[in-house]
Amino acid sequence: MTTADVAPGDLRSRVGTDRVHGSLYTDPAIYALELERIWYTTWVYVGHTSEIPQPNDYVRKDIGPQQVVMTRDKAGGIHVLHNRCAHRGNLVCDAEQGNSSSFRCPYHGWTFANTGELLGFPFNQGYGGARARERLSGLGAAPRVESYRGFVFASLAAEGPTLREHLGAAADRIDQLVRLSPVGEVELTAGWVRHEVTANWKMLVENETDGYHPQFVHSSIFSISGSGIGALYSDKSTAVTRALGGGHSENDLSPEFRRLGVPMGWAGTPESKIPEYTAAMRAAYGAENGDEIMINGSPHVMIFPNLFIAEIQLFVLQPLAVDRTVQHVTAIQFAGAPDLNRRLVTQCVGSVGPAGMLLADDAEMYERNQRGVAQRRPEWLDLSRGLHRERTDEHGFTIGTATDETSMRAMWEHYLTLMDPS
Amino acid sequence: MVASEFAAVSVSLDSRGNGTRLRLEDLRSGAVRYLDALELESIVWAPEHWVRELLDPSRHRWRDADPGPSVESMRETDPGDAGT
User: Fold this and answer.
1) Which of A5, A271, A286, A323 is most buried as measured by Cβ atoms within 10 A of its Cβ?
2) What is the CATH class of A45-148?
3) Is B39 on the interface with A (CB under 8 A)?
4) In chain B, where are the structural domains located?
5) Quick check: A107 pLDDT over 70?
6) Which residues of A touch B (CB under 8 A)?
7) Parallel/antiparallel/unpaired status of strands A19-21 and A380-382
8) So what's the ipTM on this one?
C-alpha cells in the first residue's frame, strides 16, 4: 500500500466528534501517511541535553522508524543526524552512546564530523582527490533542532511553526517539572528501558491521559503500594483532564494535591525520607514558594506526538509499524536532589522497570486493544465520554472531569489538522 | 585504553629512552607511534583544522601512495631483543 491509497477527505470521514474509525489503528496506508505528515513534519522529542553533557558526546535516538544520532559538537552545538552513511547508506553509529568528534563508517571508512560534515574517505584518488569533499554529501541532518529547558526536539521539515509555538501551553508543564529541581534542571541519566508492544502508537498517546482506565487496569499496583492516586481518577475528584492545544493534554491532579496540602504528598513520599531535598527546595525558592512547588507536584502531560511526562517517569514513544510501538522509559532525576532521585529510581523500577507493574498493565491493554480493534464489528470506537459536561477553564482550555475523554477528542482534532490540512 | 566504536588505542608512558615519551598503539592493527613532550605540546597548540585534516583517511593509512602502517611500528623493538 502507498499513501495514495488514502483519498483526500477519507480521514475526515473516519474521525467524528464522538467516535473514530477502527481502521485508523490498523491501516498501513494511514500509518505511512502519518509518518510523512506527523512524524517527519512536526516537532518530535528526541532527547535531553543531560544525555550529552560533554563536548563530542553522542547518543543514538529515534524519530519513529528513523534512526538518528544526537550529538554535541566541540563548541557545544547540538545536532540531530540521520544514521546513514552518505556513501552506500550503511549505518554509521552502532554504539548506544559515546564520545567522538567524528564518526567513521565501518563499510568503506568514510569519515564524518559530529556536525555531519564529510571529513574524508580512503583512497581519494578514486574520486579525483580530497577536493571531491566539496561535491559529496555529509550525513543528513534534521533541518530544525531546538531545545526547551534541556528537552531537545527536532523537525524533519525545513519550515513550520517554531518549537515554542508547537509546545504552546505544554511548555508550562515542562516548567512545572523543572521547578521541582532546586537548581532548575532535569537530568535523564538513570538509564532506559526499551519496551515494545504490538499496538498502534495512537493507542498509547490516547491512554497516557485517559483517566478512565487507572481504577480498572492499575487496581493491583494501587492496592499493593497503598497509593491514593487511583481514587483521584474518579468523578468525585476535583482533578481535571485538560486539552492544552496542539494535541497536547494532561491529567491535572494538582487541585487534589493542593487540598491535601502536604509537600511531596503527590509522590507519596513523607518529608522525613527526603530532608535534604525539601531543605534545598526551601533554600532555593523560599519557604512558601518551595512548599507550594512541592505540594503542587509534577505534571502528567502527553506532549504530542511522543513525549509523555508521568510525574516521576518519562516515556518516549516510537512507532515502528502500524501495529508496533516502542516505549523508551526512564526515571526522571532532578539536579541537586540526590536523596529524592534514589527514591524515584526505586519507585520507577516498581512501576515501569523490566518487571514493573504499571507498564505491564498498560502493555496488556494495548496489545488486547490492537487485536480487538482488528475485529470487524462494530467498526467505530466511542469517544463520547464527558462530551456533554466539557467546559472551558479560566485560561481558555477545554476541560473535563478526571475520567472524561476530553484529551482524546482534542488529540484527534489536532491529528486532522496535520493529516488533512485542507 | 581509549576506545570507541570507531577505534581502540592503547596509551602508555615509555621510559626506555633517556626521556619519557607517550606510546600510542592502534590495537586493531598493531601500529605504534611515540610522541615526545615537544610533539605533544605542539598537538595541544595545533589549530583545530589540523586535527580535522588528520581525520581524513586518505591523509595517512588509506592513502593511494605509500600505504601501510606508520614507519615506527615496523621498527619497534624491545631493548632486550636488540640485534635479533
Assistant:
1) A323
2) mainly beta
3) no
4) 2-63
5) yes
6) 74, 93-95, 98-104, 109-111, 113, 119-125, 130
7) antiparallel
8) 0.81
